[in-house]
Structure formats: structure tokens, C-alpha cells
Fold this protein.
Amino acid sequence: MEFRKMRRNRQELSKEMCEDILFKGTSGVLALLGDNDYPYALPISYVYDGDKLYFHSSLHGHKIDAIKRSEKASFCVVDKDEIRPLEYTTYFRSIIAFGKIRIIENDDLKREAIQKLAIKYAPNDSEINRNKEIEKDSKQLCMLEMCIEHLTGKEAIELVRGRNM
């Protein structure tokens, strides 16, 4: 599939910068095809493992219905959003990932995905306690996997200029 090229390519972030934002970010906005073909975008925590994105969900609801309807998704993470009122602008940096999302059905893969999320959000917890929490909650939890097909990032021209000085 061919994705659009960025119009203002001087502001485009490298793949490494995009991935850095994905690794260090804690939440983003997942966009799906919702009811009546309206976009459905929701804030959500995630983990990126260098290859795929993983999200948690309840077993039922708008998000799950949307994923069952269409596997296409996009995910946005804002890394910087500094308001500059005297310049009437913001110094921003963000990424958007496009890809296909699915519900993880395999119990072993589901547990691996939960483990990745748990380590990201509670990195100092003991393995024993982490496993106890995973066992307690895993039956009511749905895990989602997004395979990235296209990753792009952009930042304010002022940030580009500052980096090139």
C-alpha cells in the first residue's frame, strides 16, 4: 500500500526519532472506524516493542466492535506541544503510525503482551507481584496488537532550525 508523502518534508522526523517517541511515550490516541463510519479516536496507554504496538482493552465495547469491523487503524503520540503565544504558534513534535490492529486470541501471546505493558508501567515491581496481578486480571482483559505499516513524524520548523544550528 502506498501512503502519502509528507508535504513539508523538511519537518519530517527520521525513523529513529519516530521510534524514540514511541518508546518513551506513555499514551496516545488510537483511531478506528467507528459506528456509522464515523472516526472513533480514543486516548489509550500502550507499549512499543520495537516492532509492534500493544494496547489493553475490555472484552466488549465500541473499540472492540470497531476492530472487528475494520482492521485498519492509526495511532498518534504527541511528544511536545509548547505554546508560543507571542508567535501565535506551538512548537510541536508528534508521530502517527498507520497499520492493522487485531485482537490477540492466543493465550501465550496475550500473556506476553500483558507482560510488556506491565513492565513498561511498573518497571520496579517484582516479577512475583507482576505475575500475580496478571493472573488476577488477565481473564477480563483483551489485548490488541497493531502491526505498523507506515510510521511518520513531524515537528515545528522552529525545532528543525534549532537542531540544525
